[in-house]
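Structure (tokenized):
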């Protein structure tokens, strides 16, 4: 017969089993602390919507088109990629494709968050609009489902409201700024995105993917139409993972000899 586990063994007193279970359970986090952290992320990132509004208006999009992007797309990296490619004279289809592939990662976030949050069915379509880098990071950092739900909701609500308000303000203020290229605001979006991404690159594989993506993107920038280098840079991830798999397979074969 298989050995009985400690939690099921009749030889262990009930009070000791209860104590062991309590120690293994995650320690709850105060709601106020979760709200504070979520507000900090939402406000810090939401203010960068002003840069997007200015950049989008400088690329030739109207105030209505700019606000529609923030309301409907609501993923900063994809939005900046789209308007950046259009501003560089790129083909609209290539620009949209680059923005789309950058946004695909949110679908994978959604798979993880659906298991973590377990939201009611009617709420899920609305919550899906808020599945982005920041809400995912805040939710996954919480120790309990209650804290994850609070963190996701507060971050999403704060960021969505502030991002759209600052987008509108930036689009309106673009005319007062004059030539937006002279201000260098087109670099604000990528700078914010890199600032959010850099702390997440903790392993050698992740840093290698990021470095190769930069090399590919910059290398093909002079020879490919605007928007296409982003698609080429996306090949960095499967290329590095393939090499890592080859190394692991080689080590296994070497150990079997």
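Design, position by position:
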């Amino acid at each position: 017969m298989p050995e009985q586990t400690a939690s099921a063994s009749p030889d262990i007193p009930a009070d000791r089993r209860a104590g062991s279970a309590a120690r293994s359970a995650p320690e709850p986090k105060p709601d106020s602390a979760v709200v504070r952290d979520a507000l900090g992320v939402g406000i810090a990132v939401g203010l960068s919507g002003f840069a997007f509004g200015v950049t989008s208006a400088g690329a030739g999009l109207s105030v209505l088109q700019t606000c529609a992007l923030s309301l409907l797309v609501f993923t900063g990296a994809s939005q900046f990629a789209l308007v950046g490619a259009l501003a560089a004279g790129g083909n609209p289809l290539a620009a949209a494709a680059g923005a789309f592939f950058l946004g695909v990662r949110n679908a994978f976030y959604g798979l993880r968050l659906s298991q973590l949050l377990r939201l009611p069915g009617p709420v899920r379509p609305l919550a899906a609009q808020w599945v982005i880098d920041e809400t995912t990071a805040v939710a996954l950092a919480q120790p309990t489902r209650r804290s994850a739900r609070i963190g996701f909701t507060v971050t999403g609500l704060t960021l969505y409201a502030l991002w759209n308000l600052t987008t509108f303000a930036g689009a309106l203020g673009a005319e007062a700024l004059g030539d937006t290229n002279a201000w260098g605001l087109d670099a604000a979006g990528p700078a914010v995105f890199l600032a959010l991404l850099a702390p997440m690159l903790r392993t050698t594989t992740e840093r290698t993917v990021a470095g190769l993506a930069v090399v590919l993107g910059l290398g093909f920038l002079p020879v490919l139409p605007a928007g296409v280098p982003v698609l080429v840079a996306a090949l960095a991830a499967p290329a590095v993972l393939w090499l890592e798999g080859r190394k692991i397979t080689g080590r296994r074969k070497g150990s079997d000899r």
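Reviewer-requested clarification: DSSP finds 15 helices and no strands in the chain. Confidence is low (pLDDT under 50) at residues 1-10.
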